TrEMBL record:
Record Pfam families: DUF6188
UniProt lineage: Bacteria, Bacillati, Actinomycetota, Actinomycetes, Kitasatosporales
Protein name: Uncharacterized protein
InterPro entries found in the cross-reference section: DUF6188 (IPR046179)
């Protein structure tokens, strides 16, 4: 199991070392939040495609978090991350051990998704297709590290 080590930057993407972390909670409001082990959260606000197997064989289903149309995401509860990639174009790709693939493109008008983790890591898909990355000390609820 991964310990949620520091993400690695490449020319066109960030690879997050979350392999082996499980989805331990799913929250739904105007967003869909997947809470992982080790303090990581994936927050989806834009349309997100879930599929199983190859995209050609299964085009999947589109989740719409803003309208709480996310029932298909319940299959991710208890699933384990195999890979998680944040592209510098603002899109997100995740693969889980139950065969589910998650893809969230950037949005032209708003932040489509964000990922937050321990030690102050935060990735945000910016409007129009860019990626913002913060890294720093994690701040506790009372403003302390």
């Amino acid at each position: 199991m991964s310990t949620g080590g520091d993400p690695r930057e490449y020319e066109d993407r960030w690879v997050l070392d979350l392999r082996g972390l499980g989805v331990v909670r799913i929250r739904v409001d105007f967003r869909l939040t997947l809470v992982l082990d080790a303090g990581w959260e994936i927050v989806l606000e834009g349309s997100t495609r879930l599929s199983s197997g190859s995209v050609r064989a299964d085009p999947g289903v589109v989740l719409a978090p803003e309208s709480q149309d996310v029932a298909a995401a319940l299959s991710l509860f208890g699933a384990t991350v195999l890979s998680l990639v944040a592209f510098k174009s603002g899109s997100l790709r995740a693969v889980f051990d139950n065969g589910t693939r998650l893809r969230c493109p950037s949005d032209p008008s708003f932040e489509a998704w964000q990922i937050a983790g321990p030690r102050g890591w935060r990735f945000v898909s910016l409007p129009g297709g860019d990626l913002a990355v913060w890294r720093g000390a994690a701040v506790g609820p009372n403003g302390t590290n």
